[in-house]
Design goal:
With 414 residues, this protein is of the alpha/beta class. The protein has 3 domains: 4-100, Orthogonal Bundle (Fumarate Reductase Iron-sulfur Protein, Chain B, domain 2), CATH 1.10.1060; 116-210 and 353-411, 3-Layer(bba) Sandwich (FAD/NAD(P)-binding domain); 212-347, FAD/NAD(P)-binding domain. Helices cover 35% and strands 19% of the residues. It has 15 helices and 15 strands. The strands form 4 sheets. Strands 3-2-1-4-15 form a 5-stranded parallel beta sheet, with helices on both faces. Strands 6-13-7-8-9 form a 5-stranded parallel beta sheet. The chain has a 3-stranded antiparallel beta sheet with strand order 10-11-12, with no helix packed on it. Strand 7, helix 12 and strand 8 form a beta-alpha-beta unit. Helix 7 packs parallel to helix 15 (397-411). The longest helix has 15 residues, at 397-411. The protein is globular, with a radius of gyration of 22 Å.
Length: 414
């Protein structure tokens, strides 16, 4: 944790703008950013903590994993001609200070109103929706397919980026508020939307994007080829894969950065990120790439993986070709083929919702294969709402929280 003197200097950088673009346009959940920073300036740290928690009990999570440079800090007025206020660092400090000083924040709840809501998925969107409903007297039951709740916060984000005790604290909070969490309950196997509608007044689908986008590297299925979610989950469950050897990660987003750093921790000999675009066009945060390189990962831009070579069904290398950016698109450069050693390949080129199951349930999808919703998270099915990664591509934790808040508002008829 930074020293108080350093934090005070960072806080003083905030101009306390009247327009508050960091909060109103930059933050998906409109955190009162200048207000909490003013409390830091006044050395009223507990009050700053209360401001953050009143709007977002995921505040500590957001301070660690959200792309502040694109959201709140990216909208900071001082960032136009100078460097923006370090909002993420200030939020992180307040949460760490509250933890060290054992400051507790009590969430007030209204009396029970007799209405019940089912939430499918216990990631950030699902939990945030549950919190808003529990505050307002609704009974909430969360259905989670895995053994332990938390969704992407537990199984997708590695512990070196987000301590699992932070996630466990949030889960404990909603259980204390009265949420019932049923684990190892999978949609499509253990229940359907229709069966939930028969028991609950409303349903919120916070299922995430669980199907990895991949492409064929050979005519047969090869050993040593993994989807990013499977690879990350193995790490987060302490089920380390053995003998990963030389690892190639295909992709250029934050998931690719996480997968590459996980591979290092699994004992990989070498780890290379092969990305078809250049650094300027990659979706990953700069800090995520820098930390991956610090861990020993080699970043190889302008490279497209074409196919794989193998022996006895086990991958041995991948065939690649160099690319160049032409009018924003990655185009192959003729005659630049080369080979990269690989015992393990991890696809990290994106995730999408389980289309087949959604269509079976009659949920309408948009042209991008995402669940189609309105401004309140309503789907085409009566009293069925949705939000998070299943409704928008390249979502962030904070955007998922915003989706959970909107859906709760829609469920409550606000």
């Amino acid at each position: 944790m930074k020293k108080i003197e350093e934090i005070q200097e960072l806080a003083k950088w905030c101009l306390n703008c009247k327009m508050k673009p960091c909060s109103k346009t930059g933050c998906p959940i409109n955190t009162e950013i200048p207000e909490f920073i003013e409390k830091i300036k006044a050395e009223e740290y507990e009050e700053a903590y209360k401001i953050l928690m009143a709007n977002n009990i995921f505040s500590h999570v957001c301070s660690l994993v959200c792309p502040q440079e694109e959201q709140c800090e990216g909208s900071c007025i001082r960032g136009i001609k100078q460097t923006p206020t370090k909002i993420g660092e200030l939020e992180k400090f307040i949460n760490e200070w509250a933890d060290e000083n054992k400051i507790e924040y009590k969430i007030n709840q209204k009396e029970k109103n007799g209405k019940k809501v089912a939430i499918v998925g216990s990631g950030p969107a699902g939990i945030e929706c549950a919190i808003e409903l529990l505050k307002n007297g609704y009974a909430v039951t969360i259905f989670e397919k895995d053994k332990i709740p938390g969704g992407i916060l537990r199984y997708g984000i590695p512990d070196f980026r987000l301590g699992k005790e932070i996630v466990e604290d949030i889960i404990h909070r909603i259980e204390t508020m009265g949420a019932v969490i049923k684990t190892e309950m999978e949609w499509g196997k253990d229940f359907t939307i229709q069966s939930l509608k028969e028991e609950f007044d409303a349903v919120f689908l916070a299922i995430g994007a669980t199907k990895s986008m991949v492409y064929s590297l050979a005519d047969e299925e090869l050993k040593g080829v993994y989807e990013s979610d499977v690879f990350l989950k193995a790490y987060n469950e302490n089920q380390f894969l053995t003998g990963v050897g030389n690892v190639v990660v295909i992709g250029g987003g934050n998931v690719a950065m996480d997968a590459s750093r996980v591979a290092i921790r699994m004992g990989a000999k070498k780890v290379k990120i092969l990305y078809r675009r250049d650094k300027e066009h990659m979706p990953a945060r700069t800090i995520e790439l820098e930390e991956a390189i610090q861990d020993g990962v080699e970043f190889v831009p302008l490279t497209r993986v074409i196919s794989a070579n193998h022996e006895k069904g086990k991958i041995t290398s991948v065939n690649c070709i160099q690319t160049e950016i032409v009018e924003g698109k990655a185009v192959d450069v003729v005659g630049t083929e080369f080979t990269v050693e690989a015992d393990t390949v991890v696809f990290a080129i994106g995730l999408k919702p389980e289309k087949k199951l959604l269509e079976q349930e009659g949920v309408k999808l948009n042209d991008w294969g995402m669940i189609e919703i309105d401004e309140k998270g309503r789907t085409n099915l009566e009293n069925v709402f949705a939000g998070g990664d299943a409704t928008e591509s390249k979502s962030t934790v904070c955007r998922a929280l915003a989706a959970g808040k909107r859906a709760a508002s829609g469920i409550m008829g606000e």
